[in-house]
Amino acid sequence: MNAQRIVVWRHGQTALNVSGHIQGAQDHPLNETGRTQAREIAPQIAALNPVRIVSSPLSRAVDTAQEAAALLRLPVETDPRFRERSFGMWEGLNRAQIQERYPEQFAQWNAGGQPEGVGVEPKNATGTRFAAAAEEYAAAMDGGTLLVVAHGAAIAYGTCQLLGLDADEWMGLRGLDNCHWGMLVAQQERFPRWRLVAYNRLVNDDAVPNLETL
């Protein structure tokens, strides 16, 4: 039996989120606002009753995950497949700096394409590794809810992959806001195997689905 639900939760705010600089695979910690966000939202995540927590190994994700883990008395496992999309030579730069230094690649990126020659990880590569890890952990569970704590682009492209969509071509999902979450519910013997029932949520309310009604 697999997990019935996957909850994806983006880390809290960092200084680079505020300044508009790309973090990518670099390890930047939560700022004070981010730590407060994680503490305040953790009870809502805990109310979704995850029974296993797996996080990106980057500290901004692990520290966010720990807030929910403390309430649930669960360990936080880490898996590098949940790390953020690598932005190569662009990490640490903001949009204006990228546009000035790499105008051709910026134009490709701004149009939704893959910038060439600057080490940016392809969207589908990010989505494939994320989805493969999520499927692996879900398959090892005896029902219940899996909580994955990760990053904006990784979650968006991984969710696309779980829904059977091509992240390189389909741009219907943007990255989650800081400390917002989404939920996918398993569909037995259907395609895609996962159904997206919540995305970019901040609070729990009656819109959270009852599994018995799906």
Description:
It is built from seven helices and six strands; from the N terminus they run E-H-H-E-H-E-H-H-H-E-H-E-E. By secondary structure, it is of the alpha/beta class. It has two domains: about 5-85 and about 120-210, Rossmann fold (3-Layer(aba) Sandwich), CATH 3.40.50; about 85-120, no CATH class. It has a six-stranded mixed beta sheet with strand order 3-2-4-1-5-6, with helices on both faces. Strand 2, helix 3 (about 60-70) and strand 3 form a beta-alpha-beta unit. Helix 4 crosses helix 5 (about 105-110) and helix 6 (about 125-140) crosses helix 7 (about 150-160). The longest helix has 17 residues, at about 125-140. It is globular and about 50 Å long.
The gist of it:
This protein is 36% helix and 16% strand. With 214 residues, it is α/β, with parallel strands linked by helices.
N-to-C SSE string, H for helix and E for strand: EHHEHEHHHEHEE
Secondary structure tally, helices = 7
Secondary structure category: alpha/beta
What do we call the CATH homologous superfamily of the largest domain? Phosphoglycerate mutase-like
Structural topology:
Elements: E1 5-10, H1 15-19, H2 32-46, E2 50-55, H3 59-72, E3 76-78, H4 95-101, H5 103-110, H6 123-139, E4 145-150, H7 152-162, E5 181-186, E6 194-201
Parallel strand pairs: 1-4, 2-3, 2-4
Antiparallel strand pairs: 1-5, 5-6
Helix pairs in contact: 2-3, 4-5, 6-7
